[in-house]
Design brief:
The protein has 189 residues and is mainly beta. The protein is built from one helix and nine strands. The strands form two sheets. The chain has a seven-stranded mixed β-sheet. A two-stranded antiparallel sheet has the order 2-3. The longest helix is centred in the last third of the chain and has 6 residues. The protein is globular.
């Protein structure tokens, strides 16, 4: 079973031409350091680097960060246990992503998880186009469109979450920046 490409968008139309996203002005420093370990471990085996999540210390220009390139790859050896339980809730993975579409809330995650392993075993890099989803097989590639402004990106789903009932997908800092949702923290997609 290979990876899947699917859409998370309000409707099936050709997206408008990419709008200039300009709320971020600086380039990322080379060799961006991973935040220092914080004081509090989290659920499971992960240890969070910081207590609260945040954007990088200085704004980062992600306009040149390319969308994830959908490629055929096998299911991850990790992160595809079915069903699985987090915080007392049990979740089931979709048997297929064929025809899958979903509308709902998106959020983003940044420094709190930067450099830590995702559910698939890859290291989370907030400057790449990745995402977390509760039910999609890992990896899956999805197009995410911000309903408020029509901006759209393709991300690689390589992590589990968000574990908040009102949200369907958690995006990397870079993906959220390209969708112009950093200030609001969430968006309808």
């Amino acid at each position: 079973m290979g990876t899947s490409i699917l859409l998370l968008a309000a409707c099936v139309t050709t997206p408008p031409p990419a709008k200039k996203v300009n709320p971020i002005t600086r380039l990322p420093p080379q060799n961006q350091p991973v935040p220092k370990p914080g004081a509090r471990p989290a659920f499971g085996t992960r240890e969070f680097n910081v207590i609260r999540d945040a954007a990088p210390g200085a704004p980062v220009d992600v306009r040149d960060v390319p969308d994830a390139e959908p490629i055929e790859e096998p299911l991850s050896a990790y992160g595809n246990r079915n069903p699985y339980t987090v915080l007392g809730e049990t979740y089931a993975l979709l048997p297929t992503t064929k025809g899958f579409r979903q509308d709902g809330g998106a959020s983003w995650y940044g420094t709190k998880f930067h450099g830590l392993k995702t559910s698939s075993g890859e290291k989370y890099d907030m400057y790449k186009m990745t995402a977390a989803h509760r039910n999609l097989p890992l990896p899956t590639y999805v197009r995410v469109t911000n309903k408020a402004n029509g901006l759209s990106v393709i991300v690689k789903v390589n992590d589990r979450g968000p574990f908040h009932s009102e949200r369907i997908i958690d995006l990397s800092y870079a993906a959220a920046a390209k969708l112009n949702m950093l200030k609001t923290g969430t968006a309808q997609v």
